[in-house]
Amino acid sequence: MKDFDSLYFVGAGGIGMAALVRYFLAKGKRVAGYDRVASDLTHALVNEGAEIVYDEDPELIPDYCRDPKRTLVVYTPAVPNDHHGLQWFRANGFEVVKRAQVLGIITRTGTSICIAGTHGKTTTSSMATHILNTAGIGCNAFLGGILRNINSNLMLSDTSPFTVIEADEFDRSFLWLKPHIATISATDADHLDIYGTYENYLEGFAQFTELIDPDGTLIIHTGLAMKPRVKDGVKIYTYSRDEGDFHAANVRKGNGELIFDFVHPWGTINDISLGVPVDINIENAVAAMSACLIATREKNMKDISDDMRQAIGTFQGAERRFQIRLKQDGPNGKVVIDDYAHHPAEIRALITSVRDLYPGRHITIIFQPHTYTRTRDLADQFAEALSLADEVILIPIYPAREDPIPGITSDMLLEKVKCSKKKIYSKENLISSIKMCNFDVLLTVGGGDVYDLSPLITEEVKKQPPFRPC
Q1: Where residue 236 sits, what CATH number does that domain have?
Q2: pLDDT tens, 373-389?
Q3: How many domains does the chain divide into?
Q4: Residue 391's domain spans which residues?
Q5: What angle in degrees, to the nearest 10, is found between the helix axes of 40-47 and 15-26?
Q6: pTM
Q7: Which residues pair with 22 in a beta bridge?
Q8: DSSP structural state of residue 63
C-alpha cells in the first residue's frame, strides 16, 4: 500500500470503512470516497480531511483518484456490483479490494488480536482496546462501533506491537485476517444469505481458526457447535461467564452495580466492577481480559491486573451498545435504552438484562428488523425473543443491501409475536404515533437507521406523564 498516494472508499460511511478512512488520513494519504447518504459519521470524516460524495456518477471522482497506478480502491460488500463508480474503477484498470483485504494486510504488520463471533464483537474488541490503552501499552484498533471513551472507532499507536481487529464473518470477511490471538464468542446461525446453510456458517468459523499463527492462541466460548481446526502449536483456552479456563466468580449485583472476580489459569483478579453493568458484559469482559492477559504475558510485559480492573470499571461502552439515553431519577423514573441488537439471541440477552436491572417494570421494545433474509430465516426466533417484552412495536424492515422478498415483512413477524400489546408503525409516522403512548422502560433496537429517531423518541418520552400500567 506504500505505492499508493491516494485511496478511494466506496461505502466510506460504514462504521468499519470509516476506521480505515481515518487510518489512511493519519498516514498522510489523500482520501476520497462515496456513500449513499450523508450521516454524522461522513460529516466527521469530511471534517477530518476526507472528500466524500453521495452520488454514484464517476465524474465526481476527484482528479487525484483517477490514476490507477497511484490510487487504491477499497469497497464494502454492502455496495452492489452495479455501482457506477465501482464499475468505472474496474473498467479502467484500478486495483479494487475489499475492506477486509486491507485489514488483513494490517494484521500482518504486528501482533493481531482478532475478536470474532455472532455476538459481542464490538463490545469485546472495544474493551480490549480500552484495557491496553489504560495500561499504557496502547494498540492500533479497528472497531465496529464508536468507543465512547475515545469518541472514535480507531485508535493508533506508533509504539504498541498490538492490533485489535473486530473480525466480521459477514461475506467471509474474517478469512482475510491473520490472527495471532483470536476469540470466538458465539456461532449462532446468521448471514445465511451468504453461507446458505448453518453447516457452512460453522465451516467459516472453522476456517477462521486455521488462520491463527502456529504459535498463537484461540480463546473459545464453551459449548459452541463449531469445532476449531487450528495448526499444531496453537494453544486453546475456553471461557464463559461461569466456567472454562477463564470465567467469572462471586458475581454480586445491587445498587446499580455489577461486581465479579476474574478467574484465569494463573490466578484471580478480585472485585472487578463493570462500567456498563449488564449481565452480558460479564462474559464480554472475561473474553477481553483473557486476550489482553495472554498477549501481554507472551511479550513478558508488566502485570496488567490492576489496569484491567480500572479499565473495565471506566469502560463507557460503544455507541448503541446498551446506550442509556434517558434515566430519570426515582425508582419509577422513565428509562430509554438504545441498542444495536439485530439477532434473536442479542434481543433475548438485551431484554433479559433489562429485566434484571429493572425488575417488575413494564418493558416496551421498538424494533426495526435488519434485512429481509435474516427476518425470513430467523422469524420464529425473533418472535420468541421479542415476546419476552411486555409490549412490542415494530417498524418496517431495514433492507440494507437487499431487495424485498415477497411475504417477508414486519407484519408477518408481528403476527408471530405472542405479546398481547403489539403494533406496527411506519418509520415516518413513528414519532407522531408514540405521542399517544406512555412508556416505562423503552428499548429502541435494530441494526438499521432506527437510531436516527432515538433522540426524538427520547424527547417524546420526557413529555409523557408517569407510567401507570393498564
Answers
A1: 3.40.1190.10
A2: 999 999 999 999 999 99
A3: 3
A4: 323-463
A5: 0
A6: 0.83
A7: none
A8: G
